[in-house]
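Working notes for the structural subgroup meeting. M.R. asked for a predicted model of this chain before we commit to crystallization trials. I am recording the input and output together here so anyone reviewing the notebook later can reproduce the run.

Input as submitted:
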Amino acid sequence: MNTKQLTRGAMVCAIYGALLFINQQTALSIETIVPWIFVFPVLIYTAQSGPKLGMIVAIAMALMTMLLGGFTTWFYSWTSILMGWLYGTGIYKKWSNVMNLVVTMIINIISTALIVLVWASLFGMDLSQDFAMFHKLIPFIDFRVFACIFIVLMGGLQALCIHTVALLVCIKMRIEIRPMKPINQMNSPKWLAYVSMLIWYIYFFGQHNVNLSQLMVDAIQIIWFCDFGLLVYFGIVYLLDICVRHNKRKRSFFVILLGFVPVVNFLWALLGELDCLLQLREAKSEVQYEEV
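Returned structure, recorded in token form:
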């Protein structure tokens, strides 16, 4: 470790310590609102200096947390340090962007599950009231299904925030990263269209013709929601591709936003199903190539 790396490590530890101090002085506002912000000091240092030096800084940050926080702060910060170190290692070793996102998402989902299912009282996380409101809109959903959807959605969205901000920070700081795949190269798998049709048939028709246990019904609902989310994703990708082709990039924000709006996202899912089944974007690319 040379002087420059030592100074840089001390600086990121100081930044992390300042975040912990602000968190304590503002009634734990950081870990309540944006706990994933603890990820970035160790992430940036590891991406620049490598996993071995990043591990030393990560251990120093973990020890600092024990002095400047309680149990909830320990949990949020330690999981964030782990995610930051792994993500920074991925950048340093040139892992794919999808790999970095998946690893971050897995850790986020596991930590959210522990908060919701194990330490809910300590973290002030009570899903019963939220479930009561959600149950009025979708009365046939079970609490276990709602909890699984909440855990996956919260963990996935936080991982997406970390992934997006990390890429922006690395670009601004001129940290070398693997180039992102253009949106017109994000091909939708055709097999997903047929699997989705089977899942939707079982969900809307099949489960009513056979006497199933509540556990099996819950499993079918969870699988259907996961498939619905995938179709919405490919529908968003299809619409974003259209925005790029027609130079309407400003509309891309609304394309993503409307994907989270009920009823509207069913249209997005339908577009995703058609894109997977008919390979619409691939066909358009071939047409444009022949024209050129």
